[in-house]
Amino acid sequence: MATLTRTSTPTPTSTNYQRSAWAFLLPGTAVVVLVLYLPVLYTVYLSLTDYSGLGSPVFTGFNNYVALVRDPVFFTSLANTMIWVVGSLLIPVGFGLLVAYLSFGLKGAAWLRVPFLIPYALSGVAVGIVFSFVLQNGGALSQALDFLHLPGGTTRWLQEAPLNTVVMILAASWQGIGVNALLFTVGLQSIPAEPLEAARVDGASGWRLFRFVVWPLLRPSTTIVVGLSIVNSLKTFDIVQAMTQGGPNRVSETLGVSMYRDTFSNSNYGLGSAVAIFMSVITVAASVLYLRRQLAIGDSSGSTAERAVR
């Protein structure tokens, strides 16, 4: 009579798990290194050289960075970039929150937000071309103001600084309000109904309800929207390039436009790489500082809504 023998299935060891994990991680890691980190390292190297795109780069140390801080146009670009950061936080983020909050809970609110979302489907270059037609000398805006006998028909919207930067921020805001409103709407939909009902029972309404209940509970969405706005405004390029090319006389340049001009228009790859590295440093620094501050605030504001409605 044959006897059955029990065979035990070998259990995988931790070494096998590690090998499997590395097998899954290595392709993605290799792609990230090749696509992201190696170009960054090469850009850092180019920023330390004199290179016109032809021949071999000549190592010059920190000469390009010294040239940056000695160039008054660089500080103009930096100032304009900071104006973009502030303007992007005040207008598209602020109005996006306003649109989301006022339309939240209304019947057919999704359709009310559609007109704000349509501009986001356009590229920054397309938005720049449209608003260039509107704001150019003798353009649609000037003609409309003259027809209505209102002041401003002779204003050179794109020729005078810092007015040209302000109107370009307004153009970018026209495009960005909708997506910010959508993100804030998602955040509002994730807020539990119980805290809002408890706050209304305790007498909170209007501004008090928003300030002390909705706003703290909306912090995760706000962190995302503001963080994206800061990063995108620090690297503003397309709409400025389409509307003014940084002019006149480079007075409306941002760091992104300066990087493009130095690299591709002036064939100074070393100086353009130095601007790119500077942009990367301030973008990463701003993101890290902002996120650390938001995380610290989030840890200390867990009971804000409960205290406010008492």
Topology:
Layout: H1 14-46, E1 49-50, E2 58-59, H2 63-70, H3 72-103, H4 109-117, H5 124-135, H6 140-147, H7 163-189, H8 193-201, H9 206-217, H10 219-234, H11 238-243, H12 255-265, H13 269-300, H14 304-308
Antiparallel strand pairs: 1-2
Which descriptors apply to this entry?
310 residues, mainly alpha, MetI-like fold, two-stranded antiparallel ribbon, 14 helices, flat
Characterise the protein shown here.
The protein has a domain at 73-256 and 289-308: MetI-like fold, CATH 1.10.3720. 71% of the residues lie in helices and 1% in strands. It has 14 helices and 2 strands. It has helices at residues 14-46, 63-70, 72-103, 109-117, 124-135, 140-147, 163-189, 193-201, 206-217, 219-234, 238-243, 255-265, 269-300, 304-308, and strands spanning 49-50, 58-59. Helix 4 (109-117) runs antiparallel to helix 7 (163-189) and helix 5 (124-135) crosses helix 7. The longest helix is centred in the first third of the chain and has 33 residues, at 14-46. It starts with 13 loop residues before the first helix and ends with a helix. The model has no long low-confidence stretch (mean pLDDT 86).
